[in-house]
Amino acid sequence: MLKRSLKTAVVMCTLSIALTATAQAGTLENLERERSTTINYFLDANMEPNERLARVEASKRRLLDMERMVLRDKSLRGKSTPVVRRAFSNYDVTFLAHAATEKDLSMVDNWLEQFDVSTDALMAAKVGRR
Amino acid sequence: MTRTPSSQTRCAFAAVLLAATVLSAPPALASQINWSPQSSERLVKLPPSYLKKSLDHDFQKSSLGEALSTTEENISLKGATLSDLQDAIASSDGDVRLELRHQFLGEKRAYLDMMSERNALRRQQLETKRRLFEDMLAHLARDEDLSPAAQELIKNQDAAAERFERTYADVDRKFFTSTMATESRYAQQFNQNLQAIEQLVARIESHKMSAAPTAEDDLPMTRKEHLRRLSADVQAELSIIEQEETMLGYMAKLVALDAMALAEDGMDAELADSDAARTLQPAKSVSFFLDN
Fold first, then answer.
1. B71 falls in which pLDDT band (50, 70, 90)?
2. In this structure, is the dihedral angle defined by the CA atoms of residues B184, B186, B191 and B196, taken in order, positive or negative?
3. B171 touches chain A (CB under 8 A)
4. What's the distance, Cα to Cα, between the start and end of chain A in Å?
5. Residue B58, domain member (yes or no)
6. What is the pLDDT at residue B147?
7. CA distance B127 to chain A (A)
8. Which of B57, B150, B163 sits opposite A6 (nearest CB)?
9. Would you call A102 and B190 a contact, using CB atoms and an 8 Å cutoff?
10. Which residue of A has its CA nearest to B174?
11. Of A79, B7, B67, B93, which is the most buried if we count CB atoms within 10 A?
12. Hey, which residues does A101 pair with through a beta bridge?
């Protein structure tokens, strides 16, 4: 009886360890893909402004979810790969939707701000020859 | 009761033989008896309160555990035999007493052999346990020994988590008021599950098996501190075994001395009964020369 209960306990312990160690693979990869698509919308010169706005808004909603999945993904903690290190080195770039909403900026403005480019600076810029 | 010379000689010879062997007998230990627990990831992650029980259970199932258990049982039986013999010696005399004393010595020697074997088995168990705890500590140290890049990453991850938690509600409010959007399926499901998870986590934290081990002063110990404490306990037990071995050495010495005393008693009795010529002192034969 004792032997059986101990065996059960060991099995259950192993099971719980295995379950807690299960990694949510691919959260960061999914986010990177969605972010890349969103940035393509920012930069696509052939897209109409209304279409761009609609697409970016739809992306923002998906990004919010995906960013939360990454931020809650315990399997990424301390996972020192170049992709993970780069992702967490700049919150404002990786977690674009959260950072922009937090700062009351549009995603494109927040993104450009990370590279020291603002909408005002762009508007004030003059086309010229060097 | 009279002692026959043959039984006295036999007892004396046996006692001398016993005295010679009692100090030189090595503990009998089969090399195939072992216990080999592995410092696995599973073992390192076991709840501290369960770790000791799990190891004890694993040990009991091993060949070393079974051998130790059998030896303990034999020692207990041998102790009862010694006690019976001691009582029998006290109530006997003559040849029977001599035979019983001889038997008592033999049993004492067997008892010491068993104790010695038990200590060797216990030493093997404790050395294995000590090595295991050292491996587990090394395992933990490896996990904690992070490269500067990994340390930097964890710092950034902590900062990101802190910023997210701080702004989470604010971001939700701004997003939903600006877009009139409803919560996504993920967000709805997540919030629903979160409450259940919080209840489960609270239950886990209050569960007796996940309680952190505490020191004498009731302060909680980390996993590393707990392992160090277990390792120190093993070291203390090893020191006690060393002391017990010294004690067994003294007991063996006493058995050898008793055996020599028994041999001497036998020889004295034999000499007293023998017809061997005694050396006469000249002074005692003076009377032969004083009268014609």
1. very high
2. positive
3. yes
4. 87
5. yes
6. 83
7. 24
8. B57
9. no
10. A101
11. B67
12. none
- Copy the structure tokens of residue B189: 């499901």
User: Is B128 within a domain?
Assistant: yes
What's the number of domains chain B is made of?
1
With CA atoms as reference, report the closest residue to B110 among B82, B148, B73. Answer: B82
Q: Give the ipTM.
A: 0.73
Which of residues A57 and B213 earns the better pLDDT score? A57
CB contact under 8 A, A95 and B45: no
A59: how many CB neighbours lie within 10 A of its CB? 22
Q: Whole-prediction pTM value? A: 0.55
> Is B191 within a domain?
no
CA distance B54 to A119: 64
Nearest-Cα residue of chain B relative to residue A102: B171
Write out the residue range of the structural domain in which residue B86 sits.
Answer: 5-146+223-290
Query: Is the pLDDT score of B15 beyond 60?
Result: no
Q: Which of A60, A78, A98 sits opposite B154 (nearest CB)?
A: A78
pLDDT tens digits, A9-30: 444 444 444 444 344 448 999 9
Given a cut of 60, whether residue B180 has pLDDT beyond it is yes
For B214, phi then psi, to 5°, come to -120, 155
* Residue B120 scores a pLDDT above 90: yes
Q: A42 with A17: CB under 8 angstroms?
A: no
Q: Which residues does A contribute to its contact with B (CB < 8 Å)?
A: 6, 9-10, 13-14, 17, 57, 60-61, 64-65, 68-69, 71, 76-80, 84-85, 88-89, 91, 95, 98, 101-102, 104
B5 pLDDT more than 60: no
| Cβ contact B187–A95 (<8 Å) | no
The Cα-based distances of B80 to A29, B87, B92, B216 in angstroms read 73, 11, 19, 38
In contact, A71 and B161? CB cutoff 8 Å: yes
Rounded distance between C-alpha atoms, residue B246 and residue B252, angstroms: 10
Q: Which residues of A touch B45 (CB under 8 A)?
A: 17
